[in-house]
Amino acid sequence: MWGRKTSAPAPTPNTDEKPPQRLRDALRQARLESAERTGVIIDLRDAEIARLEILNEALDPLFAEIPGNVELFDRGVARGDPPRLWIDVVAHVDMGRDKRTYRFVQDSRYGRKILAESSDIGEVVEGVTKYVARRIIERERALAADERPLLLDPVRDARSRRRARWRAIRAFVYGLLLGIAAVIGTITLILSKLN
After folding, report:
1. What is the value of pTM for the model shown?
2. HSE toward the beta carbon, residue 32, CA cutoff 13 A
């Protein structure tokens, strides 16, 4: 009716063969592929960490030269995602997208600034050396700026402290006299109203 065609009878399944388990096979295959990809990702991450550790060892002579009283730098490899070689609180080295290029980056309030980028360890060490030198100079300037008030003339400093002390004493005496005058004036006014 209505142009329907009758279908041929379905073939009877052979009881000796098991029906295909397509979903189970597909899940198994997907799990194998996922494990392979995860293994590759872990291998790439381990390679990144190994490269950063090689760079860290190349930086050992530089950090050996830094004076002991300079505590600006805290160098170490962080095994996070992505792995990083931290130079100090605001600067680190990580690997580029190709996993062969070192990127020396500094965080600032205006965003990240790439200080050096190269696949050659020597160039990155040179960039880190320049950065460390700039940070040490900044520290020296900051310490020198803090010492300037201490280098004032002690005689002039003592004189200015004496003047400030006398100004405070004068203000206290004037306030005391004004207060006494106000009390006497108030008492006189009250007594004149009573009489």
Report:
1. 0.55
2. 6
